[in-house]
Automatic annotation (TrEMBL):
GO cellular component term of the entry, any: post-mRNA release spliceosomal complex
Protein name: CWF19-like protein 2
Record-linked Pfam families: CwfJ_C_1, CwfJ_C_2
Signal sequence extent: none
Residue numbers spanned by region Disordered: 34-71
Annotated Cwf19-like C-terminal domain residues: 76-195
GO biological process: mRNA splicing, via spliceosome
Sections of the chain in a coiled coil: none
Organism of origin: Paramecium sonneborni
UniProt feature, compositional bias: Basic and acidic residues: 52-71
């Protein structure tokens, strides 16, 4: 067992829980709170308005009320649609077992369906709850994500590689499923390339030449990490270098940011063709199975989830 890794026991009743319904309810409440923040308390005034009888309401009030109800209904449908189509929500069974490398109570380690780099050195840490970002997941889930990160650092270190973690948390209106990507880089490359600087410069450029406000936030564990240092509800990009140091950037203009931002930087560090990142090949089930087997050789000594099943 790796030092510092916390283990939480899996209880039977947690597995049998109707997780899907719970997820929809949590997300509805999160979205409603976010709308109140964006639009002011009036978004939450429907109940008060309903206390007035229809006779007392003006035409304008009735129109406003219908608009609010329509908006809420639309969001509810959008959420349900996103969850039912989400490839990372296990209830949908779209994710073949071969892509899942390891799994704890609330988090799984997955091979991406698209192959941006070679072999299993690009992995996804995926919470099972359909949260919009790591900023939003439950505390237990976050603890398990950290466990996976610590164990990946240990496993790849043994294979002479360093772990870079990053998260693209944006376009919340499409109700995305939060993911932390992990890319392992051979030490012989990472020691020569100043990876931190590559990212810092790239993030500086995201702000645009004319911007006077550089919005790079240095993420520190003693300041509470990403979950305390980024305000809730804001889109952001976050990169972390082996959990030693990290940067985050609040994305002001979502149209100027690409989910390939970190992938392009890493492709250039790893001397991978940019086309691999921009139009990646699909990883077949057969390939995933082979790479899963290869990964287990370096992972089995560090797999903290084995301790869960032994308890
Ligand atoms: Zn999902």
């Amino acid at each position: 067992m790796l030092k510092g890794v916390k283990v939480r026991k899996v209880y039977e009743d947690e597995i049998d829980e109707p997780a899907r319904e719970k997820k929809v309810k949590i997300l509805e409440s999160q979205f409603h709170k976010q709308k109140i923040r964006e639009k002011g308390q009036q978004f939450d005034d429907i109940d008060e308005d309903e206390e007035k009888s229809d006779r007392q309401k003006t035409k304008e009030e009735r129109n406003k009320e219908n608009q609010k109800k329509g908006e809420m209904l639309f969001q509810q449908r959008q959420l349900q649609k996103a969850i039912s189509e989400c490839e990372f929500c296990l209830s949908n069974e779209k994710l073949s077992q071969y892509y899942i490398l390891s799994q704890s109570s609330n988090v799984m380690l997955v091979l991406p369906k698209q192959r941006f780099y070679n072999s299993y050195t690009h992995l996804l840490i995926v919470p099972m709850e359909h949260a919009l970002s790591i900023r939003d997941v439950e505390d237990d889930t976050y603890e398990e994500i950290r466990n996976f990160q610590k164990c990946l650092i240990g496993a790849f270190d043994k294979a002479n590689m360093e772990c870079i973690f990053y998260e693209n948390a944006f376009k919340f209106k499409y109700v995305p499923h939060a993911i932390i990507e992990c890319v392992a880089i051979p030490y012989k490359i990472s020691k020569e390339a100043n990876i931190n600087l590559y990212f810092k410069q790239g993030m500086d450029e995201l702000d645009g030449f004319w911007s006077t406000h550089k919005k790079i936030i240095e993420i520190h564990k003693n300041k509470g990490g990403i979950r305390k240092q980024i305000p809730k509800g804001f889109p952001y990009f976050y990169v972390d270098f082996s959990l030693k140091s990290g940067y985050a950037h609040v994305i002001e203009n979502e149209n100027n940011f690409s989910s390939n931002f970190a992938r392009e930087i890493l492709a250039s560090i790893l001397s991978v063709e940019k086309s691999n990142v921009l139009s990646p090949k699909v990883r077949t089930e057969q390939e995933a199975k082979q790479e899963n087997d290869q990964f287990q050789l370096i992972w089995k000594q560090y797999d903290w989830t084995l301790a869960l099943t032994r308890q």
